[in-house]
Amino acid sequence: MLSVRPKRDAGGREDRAVFRGAALPWLFLLPSLLILAVFIYLPTLRTLRLAGYRANLILGTEQWVGLGNITDLLGSATYRQVALQTLVFTLLSVTGGLLLSLGLAWLASRPVRGSRAYRLLLIYPYALSPAIAGTLWLFLFNPEIGVVNQILGELAGVRPRWLDTPLLAFALVTVAAIWKGLAYNIVFYLASIRNLPTDVMEAAQIDGATPAQVFWRVAFPLLSPVTFFLVFTNIVAALFDSFALTDLLTRGGPYVGHAGITTFLVYQLYQDGFVNFRTGAAAAQGALMLALVAFVTFMQFRLGERRVHYGA
Amino acid sequence: MVRDRHLPRTRTATPPRARRGDWGTHAALILAALLISAPLLLALIKATQPSSAVLSPSLLPGGAFLSNLERVWVDAHLGRSMLNSLIVAVTVTTGKTILALLAALAFVHFRFPLKGAAFALVLVSLMLPTEVLIVALFDLVSRDLKWADSFAAIIVPFLASATGTFLFRQHFLNIPASLADAARIDGCGPLRYLTRILIPMSWNTIGALAVIQFVYAWDQYLWPLVIMQRDDHQVVQVGLRKLIEVGGQTDWGAVMAGAVITMLPPLIVFTALQEQFSRGFALSEDK
User: Which domains does chain B have, with CATH numbers?
Assistant: First the structure.
């Protein structure tokens, strides 16, 4: 949906440029551009500038260190561990979430009785916020009073320390993130599956393709544009929306090695910027994350041009 | 519930063509729906239990939902922060929609110098999330604009929408060019064309976008957490954190009641615009 293909639109756009006036289009654009300039582009420039200073916003001190903050971060065992954890978390939650939601959307698109009800049951959790997800799971998986351990304790006699055991906490945050993102992904997959060309699918069936072959050989390639869009939005969600989830559920902990195992990049940035007041270090992390997002976007366009099937 | 209503009917009413493998489909979908809803169902049950039962293994719904809710609604100012979130989400959604419609109108129906550059400026902003800029944004909003603790701080920075501009532009490009031509020849100005022709033809896109933007604004967490220190202006997502944080024992029955209520506004918006939501994406997905 958000794939950009300006070349294809170029012709159509010119046909439609029917209204005259030199100032008018700028007048229509002014509110949007002004807000973007003041609240996006100015802070971006200031982030890059602050990244070069050892600064403390509260004390108002600033000292030029050049690339010092960046090299400090890249050399810091804590930051490297946080980056690695973020990578693993992103890989697991994005692949897990997309495979699961594609499968469910495929099943819910089959012409069975009540499929409309199933679709609603699968997508209504879209209304869940990351903070609510964090709050619910914090209570459900509370080792002493949580419902999960009470049931596990009665049935199996075990009461895992979900939030204090590093691997369990990491798994819990990953599963919670997948759970939170399912509905959004399913919405997009359902809409795209509905738009699949039925003649191609039926032709494959008539030619004797098994349901699995129809899915992997015909539907999956035809769905690659939406998959690509979702990979990108899910990476962004894993990087940024995970903040509220981990802030409420684990507070970045439990501690392993050099950092809390569920401390991801944005959480670390928040800690340094607003808890430890290491403004320059936080801005440098912002600058590094800007580079990361730029890289992900670049890859999306590069791979998207080549690998994605956009239909006729 | 789902099982009772849908499984028995499939045996009698499904056309023969679709019957093979239906049983497995139903089983998988019911299991998935149950698993996905389980955390919400458990929260809902616990929200209705009196304090004594909340911490017990009991999974029987009780009748204490309103008294649970009352404790957070009044004592923890949940009502106030719900209202704040509503003000913010409605203003941001409306503002984003209007600004994006105007920007898309300029991009599609005007020819002007630097159009490509202006469009790039809008698009590239998609790559610059607030979370990454938060230190500099905090500095700007609190020190230069002196907006800390005001609604302006959590509304104004989010009024522009690259996603909205992009989606509306795509949608306008799918509307026959002859329509704009005819309108102009009949002496219809661009704003009149927007309100009389484009907007009535764009309800699905507007509805779909409204859902996304309302949910986005409602879910905001990190930015209000750092910029808003006044409790009576705080949004409800951060309010949840305060509910849990209260010194000593957390009143979980009340917290669950609060969490359930906090889900309602986006759920209502989503339910109301569900048809537009699916159709708005189906259309743009097609092109």
Answer: 2-48 (no CATH), 72-286 (1.10.3720.10)
Q: How far apart are CA A165 and CA A147, in angstroms?
A: 18
Q: Which helix (DSSP H) or strand (DSSP E) does residue A289 occupy? A: helix A279-307
pLDDT tens, position by position, B68-92: 888 888 888 899 999 999 999 999 9
Structure tokens at A143: 């080792």
Partners of A55 in the β-ladder: A62
Are B228 and B238 a contacting pair, CB within 8 Å? Answer: yes
Chain B residue with minimum CA distance to A13: B108
Question: What's the CA gap between A121 and A124, in Å, rounded?
Answer: 6
Contact at 8 Å (CB) between B207 and B87? no
Q: How far is CA A56 from CA A67, A278, A281, A287, B216, in A?
A: 17, 6, 9, 17, 31
ipTM: 0.86
Query: Which pLDDT score is estimated for B282?
Result: 60
Residue type, B234: Q
Distance CA A37, CA B83 (A): 30
- Facing B259 at nearest CB: one of A132, A188, A270: A132
> What residue in B sits closest to A265 (Cα-Cα)?
B132
Q: Which residues contact B116 (CB under 8 A, 6 or more apart)?
A: none
Partners of residue B177 in chain A, C-beta under 8 Å: 12, 15-16, 18
- Joined together, the tokens standing for residue B235 give 């949004």
Q: Flag residues of chain B having pLDDT under 70.
A: 1-21, 246-248, 281-287
- Please tell me whether residue A17 adopts helix, strand or coil conformation: coil
Contacts of A248 in chain B (CB under 8 A): 240-241, 244
* A136 CA to centre of own chain: 20
Contact of B58 with B49, CB cutoff 8 Å: yes
Confidence (pTM): 0.87
Q: Do A286 and B110 touch (CB under 8 A)?
A: no
Rounded Cα distance between A209 and A216, Å, is 11
Measuring CA to CA, how many Å separate B36 from each of A95, A171, A188, B252?
18, 17, 17, 21
Measured CA to CA, the distance from residue B223 to residue B58 in angstroms comes to 38
Could you tell me which of A304, A250, A279 has the C-alpha nearest to residue A89? A250
* Chain segment A246-255, per-residue pLDDT in tens: 999 999 879 9
Amino acid present at B103: A
Contact B282, A226 (CB under 8 A): no
CB contact under 8 Å between B43 and A151, yes or no, is no
Burial of residue B231 (CB within 10 Å: 0-12, 13-18, 19+) is middle
What's the CA angle centered on B96, arms B226 and B269, to 5 degrees? Answer: 85
Would you say B81 and B235 are in contact if contact means Cβ atoms under 8 Å apart?
Answer: yes
Report d(CA B22, CA A108) in Å as an integer: 11
Q: Which of B15, B40, B110 is closest, CB to CB, to A24?
A: B110
Residues of chain A contacting B192 with CB distance shorter than 8 Å: none
One DSSP character per residue, B171-186 reads: HHHTS-HHHHHHHHHT
Residue B140 with chain A: CB contacts under 8 Å: 38-39, 42-43, 46
Domains of chain A: 73-307 (1.10.3720.10)
